[in-house]
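We were asked to recover a plausible sequence for a given structure. The inputs and outputs are reproduced exactly as logged, with field labels preserved.

PROBLEM: sequence recovery
POSITIONS: 585
GIVEN STRUCTURE:
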């Protein structure tokens, strides 16, 4: 692998050295480099240093300029304003850096981070015996993208799908089926959809009876005890629910173009045996205390009505365990068995308070520390066009499969309208890639903690900030490369670059920096924004700089080179977000 230092980092190093030479007592002062509209980069850390040293900012800036080693990297440095530095890099530096990236294949010269750790990503958490709905979309899409980015930087990620497969609802469902044995007709369908629809229907019926009949409620609670104690007949029916649900889950995730590994599906039931030990440890350490028969953890800063502390219930007064015990036991497993250094939870923002208390409890117990951290990636709600939580016209929650099918259908219309030499089978294949990509990108291009409107018309539009716009930019480049025939992409560092070529080249060079920043901040929307700007800069380049009709053979090769590395960067970046880039559209 050919690791490449970005132009930004190279310029930063030169300026830092010049600052140290100009003001030795300042040590390794940071020039605070950023992209600029007036030049390639702007350094604005001199003002703060001048204030600290009680020096004239412009005079200090002038001293720094005189000590900058330019060479083949820096073309020009000028002092502007009260003491800013505007830096322009050479055309040769841009092309040479991109040439090394181009030669590095899929990694594009992006290095692996030092001292990489192990991150367990808890995401895509459907519930057994329930159909997946639009509310499950964001956890799956965001979690998958985060794993893609973290893996690319060198972090080892382990997925955990903490599915809802335990607790009161299963006692309720199993008891109902024991009392109504003909309700769950056998269904041997390939994708589990019919079986899941039957389970979902029976679940709703059992819930209605549970809420209306106190005697049934007591029998259902007794069935929970039988389940937790390992009653053979109860466990067999429970296992049937889990197996049928998994078949269905896999079919939905396959539509989402996501790989879900069976060994990473570790539901609430997996922690059942460890929960008594978790409770014992917390009580022995004094982290949890008995209150009205229950084992709880109190927090001074978390208050409810009448300014009373809100407790985290580890064990109920009747001896049962809830979500807190399951989540704390999962933390123990992930820290001590999986050796994780980071725990990342992609969970609805409405559960933020719960996880705040769980993480603080784990910290008090010593399971989390400065070396082992936990983060809740709370995400917002998917809204309809009316700005309210997305529902069907009848007010029901939208099934995720229906949503994805409609996206693919809508994408097929767009692809068919543009398709020139695609067969119907190819149109359907592209429609799946475009439609699912559109749904994912609409989610990922929004900051995770914000709500966003689900608007399929906008999502599959060829204009604006959509995945379709990016996919068509990639397909356009592939078309140009095919038309080039025997003429291959070749970098020519000796050529002068047009403004549009420079802008595109500088942006391409910052791909690695962007991925690292987005991964470190758990911010896939920053990578999405980078890719949209890349496609936009390529469009400008394509409009202003003829590729195959350039004046000289060397210029044709160099522009084909810029096309090719743009395509590779789009392909790699979109891939990290879990989105396909079709070769033809």
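RECOVERED SEQUENCE:
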């Amino acid at each position: 692998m050919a690791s490449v230092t970005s132009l930004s980092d190279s310029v930063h190093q030169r300026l830092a050295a010049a600052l140290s030479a100009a003001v030795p007592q300042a040590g390794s002062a940071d020039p605070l480099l950023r992209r600029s509209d007036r030049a390639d980069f702007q350094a604005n850390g001199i003002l703060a240093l001048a204030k600290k040293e009680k020096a004239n900012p412009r005079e200090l800036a002038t001293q720094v300029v005189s000590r900058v080693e330019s060479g083949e990297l820096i073309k020009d440095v000028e002092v502007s304003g009260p003491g800013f530095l505007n830096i322009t890099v050479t055309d040769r530096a841009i092309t040479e850096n991109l040439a090394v990236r181009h030669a590095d294949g899929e990694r594009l010269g992006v290095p692996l981070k030092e001292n990489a750790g192990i991150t367990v990503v808890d995401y895509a958490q459907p519930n057994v015996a329930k159909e997946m709905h639009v509310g499950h979309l964001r956890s799956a899409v965001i979690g998958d993208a985060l794993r893609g980015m973290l893996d690319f930087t060198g972090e080892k990620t382990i997925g955990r799908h903490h599915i809802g497969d335990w607790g009161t609802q299963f006692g309720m469902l199993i008891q109902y089926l024991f009392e109504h044995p003909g309700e769950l007709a056998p269904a041997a369908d390939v994708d589990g959809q019919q079986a899941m629809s039957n389970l979902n229907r029976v679940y709703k019926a059992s819930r209605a009876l549970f809420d209306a009949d106190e005697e049934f409620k007591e029998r259902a609670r007794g069935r929970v005890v039988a389940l937790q104690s390992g009653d053979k007949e109860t466990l067999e029916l429970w296992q049937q629910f889990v197996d049928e649900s998994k078949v269905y889950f896999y079919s939905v995730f396959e539509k989402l173009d996501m790989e879900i590994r069976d060994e990473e599906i570790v539901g609430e039931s997996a922690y059942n045996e460890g929960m008594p030990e978790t409770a014992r440890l917390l009580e022995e350490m004094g982290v949890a205390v008995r209150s009205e028969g229950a084992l709880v953890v109190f927090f001074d800063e978390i208050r409810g009505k009448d300014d009373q502390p809100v407790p985290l219930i580890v064990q109920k007064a009747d001896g049962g365990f809830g979500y807190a015990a399951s989540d704390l036991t999962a933390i123990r497993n992930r820290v001590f068995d999986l050796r994780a250094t980071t725990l990342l939870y992609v969970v609805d923002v409405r559960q933020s308070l719960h996880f705040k208390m769980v993480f603080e409890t784990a910290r008090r117990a010593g399971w989390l520390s400065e070396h082992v951290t936990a983060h809740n990636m709370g995400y917002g709600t998917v809204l309809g066009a009316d700005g309210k939580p997305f529902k069907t016209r009848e007010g029901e929650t939208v099934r995720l499969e229906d949503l994805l099918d409609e996206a693919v259908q809508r994408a097929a219309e767009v692809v068919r309208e543009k398709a020139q030499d695609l067969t119907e089978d190819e149109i359907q294949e592209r429609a799946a890639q475009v439609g699912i990509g559109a749904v994912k990108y609409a989610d990922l291009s929004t900051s995770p903690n914000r709500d966003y409107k689900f608007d399929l018309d906008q999502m599959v539009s060829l204009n604006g900030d959509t995945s379709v716009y990016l996919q068509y930019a990639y397909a356009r480049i592939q078309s140009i490369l095919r038309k080039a025939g025997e003429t291959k992409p070749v970098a020519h560092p000796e050529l002068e670059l047009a403004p549009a070529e420079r802008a595109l080249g500088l942006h391409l060079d910052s791909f690695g920096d962007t991925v690292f920043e987005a991964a470190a901040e758990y911010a896939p929307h920053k990578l999405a924004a980078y890719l949209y700007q890349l496609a936009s800069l390529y469009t400008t380049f394509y409009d202003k700089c003829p590729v195959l009709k350039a004046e000289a053979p060397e210029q044709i090769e160099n522009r084909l080179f810029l096309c090719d590395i743009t395509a590779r960067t789009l392909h790699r970046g979109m891939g990290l977000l879990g989105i396909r880039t079709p070769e033809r559209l």
